[in-house]
Design a protein that fits this description.
Distance between the termini of chain A: 64 Å
Number of strands of chain A: 0
Shape of chain A: elongated
Radius of gyration of chain B: 22 Å
Largest interface: A-B, 36 and 35 residues
Oligomer: heterodimer
Number of strands of chain B: 2
Structural class of chain A: mainly alpha
Shape of chain B: globular
Largest sheet of chain A: none
Order of helices and strands of chain B: HHEEHHHHHHHHHHHHHHHHHHH
Strand order of the largest sheet of chain B: 1-2
Largest sheet of chain B: 2 strands, antiparallel
Helix content of chain B: over 70%
Amino acid sequence: MSIVLAATAAILFASGTYLVLQRTLSRIVIGLALLTHGGNVLLIAAGRWGRAPIAGTGRARSFSDPIPQALALTSIVISFAVTALLLALAYRSWILTRDDAVEDDVGDRAIARAAGPRPGPGDDERALVHDDTGAGR
Amino acid sequence: MTWLVAVPVVLPLVGAAVSILAGRSRVAQRTVGVVVLATTTAIAVVLLVHVDRSGPVVAHAGGWPARIGIALVADRFAALMLVVASVTLLAVLVYAIGEPGAERNHVGFQSVYLVLAAGVALAFLTGDLFDLFVAFEMMLTASYVLLTLGGRREQVRSGTTYVVLSLLSSTLFVTAVALLYSATGTVNMAVLAQRIHTLPSGTASAFAALLVVVFGIKAALFPFFFWLPDSYPIAPSPITAVFAGLLTKVGIYALIRTQTVLFPAGSRPGTLLLVLAGATMVIGVAGAIAQDDVKRILSFDIVSQVGYMVMGLGFFTVAGVAAAVFYMVQHIVVKTSLFMTAGLVEHAAGTGELPRLRGLLRTAPVLAVLFLLSALSLAGVPPLSGFVGKLALVEAGFQSHAAAIVAVSLAVSLLTLSVMARIWSGAFWGAAGEPAEPDGGEEAVARVGRLGGPVWMVVPTGALVACGVAAALAAGPLYGLSVRTAHDLMEPARYVHAVVGR
């Protein structure tokens, strides 16, 4: 059984990592959800297998280990809350920019400006004019 | 005495609930916040005195034994950090109340801030790794909200990066906890310390390295620092101040705690930590040199300073860890007061960009004094507290025959001084307020007042700067306490005995 859990955790981690490396925020959120699920599955797999620890009597070894289950429960609640917060942020970002992509940070933009080809004289004005006519039509 | 250990965690949480219920009255909310944090500070001081005299205090939640239950442990390290953190949190709360602005008037600000305080306290006091994860989540979730309160576009942008990165490191943390549990059958740190000897040394080293990555992201250690300079400067001034002073240092605390208590001497990643520390210092200060905005400069400087604390840990000697502890204590106070001063500068001049700042020495001389004391301490100029910390680090370095890292740290220290001098000459020297402020110096003085800002912003800043100076004056006793703390950390037998009970 635990090889199934290990494989599940591995698949969740792999697909989560792939999605987190994407540029669109919605994929990153899904990727993070998968990653946290992978962590939770791993937590469950860390304990001993057996019968449900809250019902019946018997030898202690015949019951599953309840501690990792309690830990996983806590971890699920936390990841649920943070994912909800992240979704709210993503929604806010979409409201503000009408775009799902993660924006560059200030430093990156400054470096890109410093390194990129300098616009010739009048480039800016032409772009503006173009924009204006586009909007006018 | 044992019940007292839980108060710094429970009281702010109760305060947060009361604060939400009292949402209609700003005065009631502020009273609750200040009273709760002042009480926490008092309790932390009592705990520190008690713990220093008669050993660690342990509270087992629900009376469960340490192996399966939740233990709260106040030893010297935890109590010392708790005192410093509570003082800082209190000062920043008063500063936030004193700052005129929209964000701190948000109905949830006070209660989220108290949750942050509870998370920080729990991170210091907890005796088990999973609880540490919960503490980090409390602290970070509160920080996500504080960072994006207001929902401006740049806040959402940098907040997203910050949340994603933190969540990623938390997932790694859960993974590490799961693996440790399956290898040892416990998540309690004291029990782990007893059992980790039974693991193969390679496995133990892998766990140590995994925890370095987890806490490295939270502490902004190279190469995981890039989220910090982008997200911190965006928040409102009081928030940036408390983040800068505390959050990364909680990461460092967890790093020091886990690396010293959990792992036996053979599997500690000393060289790895020293290399990371050196790279962190250099990259951080290089970033600070390249920036033009006061808050961004100071944010890169946080990264650089994190390197010093990790350097002390990397030696894995009593002298090294003592230096790291001392450095942390004074750094939290100094860095927070520096960011509070930067907030006052922004308030007085309307901008934090160096090319647009001038002549604050004339318009706001009090700010100049506050900035100078903190900045010189940060750069390590004698006789201020930063100098004592750096001297202790350098001595520990020579004792461990690690001349390379000592040379790097001294060079970075010099560069830090040049960065601080650049802020000083850019913002404080020159004719009074020409570019940013078209009206003359006299009117600017009238606008910001004789103190250089609103009274209840300047007073807490001044109090924290005074604490920093006091740390230098009381460097002897404080360093003695740091050495005793380091002894506890390097020989965790007493800690283990106090928690496990046999």
